[in-house]
Amino acid sequence: MKIGLLSRNANLYSTNRLKEAAEERGHDVRVIDYLRCVMDITSHKPAIRYGGQELSPLDAVIPRIGATHTFYGTAVVRQFEMMNVFPTNESQGISRSRDKLRSLQLLSRNGIGLPVTGIAHSTKDIDGLIELVGGAPLIVKLIEGTQGVGVVLAETKKAAESVIAAFRQLDANILVQEFIKEAKGADIRAFVIGGRVVASMRRQGAPGEFRSNLHQGGHAEKIKLTPEERSTAVRAAKTMGLNVCGVDLLRSNHGPVVMEVNSSPGLEGIEDTTGIDVAGKVIEFIEKNARPGNTRTSARG
Ligand code: ADP
User: Fold this and answer.
1) Which atom of ligand 1 is nearest to the CA of 257?
2) In this predicted structure, what is the pLDDT of residue 24?
3) Which of 138, 211, 215, 260 gets mutated to test ligand 1 (max ligand atoms within 8 A of its CB)?
4) Which CATH fold topology does 97-112+182-285 show?
5) Where are the beta strands (DSSP E) in the chain?
6) How sure is the predictor about 123, in pLDDT bands with cuts at 50, 70 and 90?
């Protein structure tokens, strides 16, 4: 098959591994920088120009759209869908998962466990917001944050009030969340492909750190999920309409709760930790599902 890897950087671990896994299976892979794609929207025959020429037909694309380029990146994925090219993740699922508020609303509507969460923009009702999540200690997040930057643990009501008041000044969307203390600074990454968890790991923050992000000095180990955790991860992926994703969970007293669903999950951490050929499984998924015109994800929220 002819597979397009929509990635800005051919040297990234994940891009490389997907390319390698596809080539090992005899496929023809091309890394395509989606920001350099020119879309022909107006013609009867939707097309993409790349490097001064019309892109030759592909059987499937693997979108690896960076968070900073979601808008243009998802438009390119949509253009491929219009050209009847199978995407591992549909543009709509990627857009949904990038919108934290929309994601949480969709997940809660589908009865998926979440930390108790309140969302505000410029409220003066700080006390009400704090009450809503059951008081301190609590977590305050800036919606735009990534890799743990912009996530604050406020241990007392006073601290919570001042953090929320400070964030308010930034004219930002603020998310206030119950602190899942019992998670003890660890979270779970479940890698879902085609409605199944194919690999999972537990990430533990550095001592004294409530954030488990590897970028914040955490470490990871392979774990076996409980049936409830598995089904939560699979249902979260389905709700978002994502075939390939990383679901981040916390182990809470009231069962597994979803923090985030990532539509371009990194492969390095999960493959290193579990020894599982996750890239190969993405390619197998394409082999089973890519048909011309099959551009709609069966998973749907
Ligand atoms: P980012 O998307 O910036 O990585 P997250 O929302 O994933 O931010 O939060 C970073 C880390 O903080 C998580 O991996 C988790 O370990 C910890 N964390 C986030 N929310 C909570 C919470 N409600 N309770 C306990 N720990 C949390």
Assistant:
1) 23
2) 98
3) 211
4) D-amino Acid Aminotransferase; Chain A, domain 1 (3.30.470)
5) 2-6, 28-32, 38-40, 47-50, 53-54, 60-63, 86-87, 117-120, 138-142, 151-154, 174-178, 186-193, 196-204, 219-222, 244-252, 255-262
6) confident
Instruction: Report pLDDT for 293.
Output: 72
CATH topology of domain 117-179: Dna Ligase; domain 1 (3.30.1490)
d(CA 281, CA 276): 9
Q: In whole angstroms, give the CA distance from residue 30 to residue 95.
A: 24
Task: Check pocket membership of 176 for ligand 1, CB cut-off 6 A.
Answer: no
Q: Which of 97, 250, 258, 260 to mutate to test the pocket of ligand 1 (most atoms within 8 A of CB)?
A: 250
Kindly report, as residue ranges, where domains of CATH 3.30.1490.20 are found in the chain.
117-179
pLDDT band at 146 (very low <50, low <70, confident <90, very high): low
Q: What is the pLDDT of residues 168-181, one digit of tens each?
A: 888 888 899 999 99
What fold, for 2-89?
Answer: Rossmann fold (3.40.50)
Residue ranges, CATH 3.30.470.20, the chain: 97-112+182-285
- Nearest residue by C-alpha to atom 18 in ligand 1: 211
Print burial letters for 215-245: b (CB count within 10 Å at least 16), e (below 16). ebebebeebebeeebbebbbbbbbbbbbbbb
- DSSP at 242: B
What's this model's pTM, rounded to 2 decimal places?
A: 0.94
